[in-house]
Amino acid sequence: MGKLEKQTEHRARARSDVASLVRYHSPQVDIDVRLNTNEAAEPPPVAFMSDLQRALDRVDLNRYPDREARELRVGLGERYGLSPDWVFCANGSNEVLQTLLLAYGGEGRCAAVFEPTYAMHSQIVRITGTRLVGTARRSDFSLDQALLAGVVEAEKPDVLFLCSPNNPTGQVDSDDLIQVALELLAPHGGLLIVDEAYGQFTTTSAANLLREDRSLVVSRTFSKTWAMAGLRLGYLLGPPWCLSELEKVVLPYHLDSIKQEAGLLALAYGSHMEARVEAVVAERQRLTQALRELPVTVWPSQANFVLFRPESMSGTQVWRGLLGRSVLVRDFSTAEGLDDCLRVTIGTQSEDDRFLVAMREVLL
C-alpha cells in the first residue's frame, strides 16, 4: 500500500450520493463588466444604507435573533395581503428550497424538474436524498400541459418544481399551467413549488393562486429586485400547515438579526424597488433588440437576463472572446439542452453598451 493510500485509508467518507456530486459553481473573477450572476446592476439607495446603519446600531449582537422573524414576516405578509403565518424567511431562496425538500423530500420520495432550469433545484433534490426525476422541456424550452401530465401521471412526484420566469430561459408559466399542475398533483398529495426569484420582473405571480386547500408554495428573494444579493435573504409564501412543517427541520435562530433588519427596512423602499424594475425591463428591451441585430438567436425573456446562442461561432469561443475584453457572461454552452447558449444579465446602460461592443468585435 502506497503512502497516499495509507493516509486516506481511515478518512471518513461522505454519503456515496453526495460524493458523486459536483458543487454548484459560477465563476467569480476580477473583471470590468460582470454580467453572469443576475445580480442587481445598481446598489440600494444611499438613504437605505444610512437607515440600515442606524438600524444596526440598535441590534444587540450578543443576543440571539428573533427566532420567528415576526416583524419581517408581518411586513412581507402585508405586502401580499397575507397573515404572517403564510410567510417563511430564510438565508436566500436556496435555503427556502432546501428546507422544503428536508420536510417534503428525502429517502423514498421523488421530486420532478423540467430541464433546462435553475441548476440548484436538482442539486438540492440530490443532497436531501430525494430521487430526482428530470424531464426535458420542448425544443423551444416551453412546458405544456401534455408534458406536465405525462411526468406527474408516470412518477407521482412528492414535489414538483416550476420556475417562473425560468432560469436561464426567461419564460413564464401561465396561471392555467399552474392550475393544471395542482390538479394533477392533488390525488396523491404532491407539493408544487413555484420559484419566482425573478417574479417581480413580470406581471403575473402564482402568489395570487395561494389557498389553504392547495399544496402550493411560492419562493421569492431579496437578491435581485431589492439589490441585496450580498445579504442572502429569501422568503416563501404558502399555507400555514405547510410552513409549520418547515419550522421542524430548519435550524434554530437561522435568520440573523442583520438580515431581519435589512429586509424589514427594504420593504419601506418599495417605490425604489419598483423604479429599479421598470428600468431593468426597459433596458432588457433595448439589449434584446440590439442582440437581434447580431448573428445570434435570442429568446424572449421576462427576467433580468437574456439567453442567446451565437450562430457562427461556438458559445465557448464567444464567452472566451468576451472574457478577453473584460466582460463576463454565463456560459451554458455545455449544459444539456443548451448547446452553445450564453446568458447575459441586464446591467447598467454603460455595462450593456460595453457588452454589445465586445459582442460585435467577437462576432463581426
Give a structural overview.
The chain is α/β, with parallel strands linked by helices. It folds into two domains: 22-44 and 271-363, Aspartate Aminotransferase, domain 1, CATH 3.90.1150; 46-268, Type I PLP-dependent aspartate aminotransferase-like (Major domain) (Aspartate Aminotransferase, domain 2, 3-Layer(aba) Sandwich). The protein is built from 13 helices and twelve strands. It has helices spanning 3-8, 16-19, 46-57, 70-80, 92-104, 119-127, 145-155, 175-185, 240-249, 257-267, 270-291, 315-324, 349-363, and strands at residues 33-35, 87-90, 110-115, 131-136, 159-163, 191-195, 216-221, 234-237, 296-298, 305-310, 327-331, 342-345. The protein has a seven-stranded mixed sheet with strand order 2-8-7-6-5-3-4, sandwiched between helices. Strand 3 (110-115), helix 6 and strand 4 form a beta-alpha-beta unit. The longest helix is centred in the C-terminal third of the chain and has 22 residues, at 270-291.
Key features of this structure:
five-stranded mixed sheet, Aspartate Aminotransferase, domain 1, 12 strands, alpha/beta, 364 residues, Aspartate Aminotransferase, domain 2, seven-stranded mixed sheet
The tally of beta strands, per DSSP, is: 12
Count of alpha/pi helices: 13
Global morphology: globular
Bin the helical content: 25-40%
- The CATH architecture of the largest domain is 3-Layer(aba) Sandwich
CATH superfamily of the largest domain: Type I PLP-dependent aspartate aminotransferase-like (Major domain)
Report the β-strand fraction as a percent range.
Answer: 15-25%
Estimated structural class: alpha/beta
Instruction: Just give the CATH class of the largest domain.
Output: Alpha Beta
CATH topology of the largest domain: Aspartate Aminotransferase, domain 2
Give the low-confidence spans: none
**Strand order, sheet with most strands:** 2-8-7-6-5-3-4
Order of helices and strands: HHEHHEHEHEHEHEEEHHHEEHEEH
Backbone CA Rg: 21 Å
End-to-end Cα distance: 58 Å
The major pleated sheet works out as: 7 strands, mixed
Number of domains: 2
Mean pLDDT: 95
